[in-house]
Amino acid sequence: MMAMFMVASATAFAGDSDALKAILKAKDYAEAEALLKSGLSQLANDQEKAKAYNKLVDLAYAKYKKEDDTRITNQALQKNDPVDTDGMIQAGIAALTYATECDKYDILPNAKGQVKPAFQKKNQDRLQSVFKGLYEKGCDFAESTKNAEAFQCLDAYLKAADSPLFSVIPAIKNDPNHGIAAYYAGRAAMQLDNKARAIELLKMGVSDTIKQVHDFSLDLLLYTLGKNRSTKEDSLKFINDMKDLYAQYPESEKVYSYLCDALILNNDEAAVVEIGKNHLAKYPDSVLPHIYSAFLLQNQKKYQEAIDQWNKVPESQPNYVQFAYYRAVCKYNIAVEFNEANSDARTGRLTPENETKFKELIAAAQTDFEKCQELDPDQNTVKWKYLLHNVYTQLGLTDKAAALE
What we know:
Layout: H1 2-12, H2 18-24, H3 29-39, H4 46-77, H5 85-106, H6 120-126, H7 128-143, H8 147-161, H9 170-173, H10 178-191, H11 195-206, H12 211-226, H13 232-248, H14 253-265, H15 269-282, H16 288-299, H17 303-310, H18 320-342, H19 352-375, H20 385-394, H21 398-403
Helix pairs in contact: 2-3, 3-4, 4-5, 5-7, 5-8, 7-8, 7-10, 8-10, 10-11, 10-12, 11-12, 13-14, 14-15, 15-16, 16-17, 17-18, 18-19, 19-20
């Protein structure tokens, strides 16, 4: 027992291990990093690991600060001394990464069971300038569509900002740039085919309180989530993703639309109808539930019910010409069905009474088709001319029909 106690005491009060001494003698962070990676398991305890990682922070930060000081001096004194910008960025990323690793060990109890962080405060104070530098360079890269560089800078900035070491600092916790950084980083990640991380980052952007950041991030998130849906499982996952987003942002018409489109593709029209009812109960001025209901009813050949829904779509709605056209088609089809149901089987003719009724029905379609003609004279959006020509012909309006030829 005495021998074991003496060995334990010798270990507890021994100096730095050889592995740590080698790391502490390193002249630059690349050398120190290589030594740490190869010798991490040889470090004696958590405190040695914290000290080793902090050495990497010292070296990386020294490189970052040297280049950044030269850059600032050049701006202030209009000088042109060389700045290793790439090296500065890499050093800044390394400093933040190593600092968060250092903190994982720095906050663990020592041999006496005490928690006495040795490096936490120092790293929190000195590395705040690195956040600003990485954000600015990351945004520059993003605006120049240098996706790999933008992602590297901004992803490191966001991961460090979210770490226990830095997230407690008010200036970092409340940094208003997090949202735009997340959007740019998410966009870059998507371009780099890192879909999983892109989704994580874009969700951060969506949660931002700045409307433009929220909107841009949401657009890109919806696109990213919907990419490469090649299997049934992909489609079901996308539906569940949309349900989750809709639960978070029920007021978003865009999310509502994506969810309904996905459900329709999955042949779950009943769910679309149910969601529409609930959506209208919360947002009675919403137009989208009426549009989706009208589409579904029209596809089921319930034309009058569809017309009732199309009537609830105001002319102020974007692309109203499409909805006017769909309503016109419903009215036209009602007239056609009436004609087919009431025509004499032998002669194909209607009775005078039914002829009058038929013309009333077809005239109802005329109004909407002419509205389409007014809104879209060149048929860039809807092809109204053929059916309007038929309407004019059926009503005996030969001059108007000829004008369309």
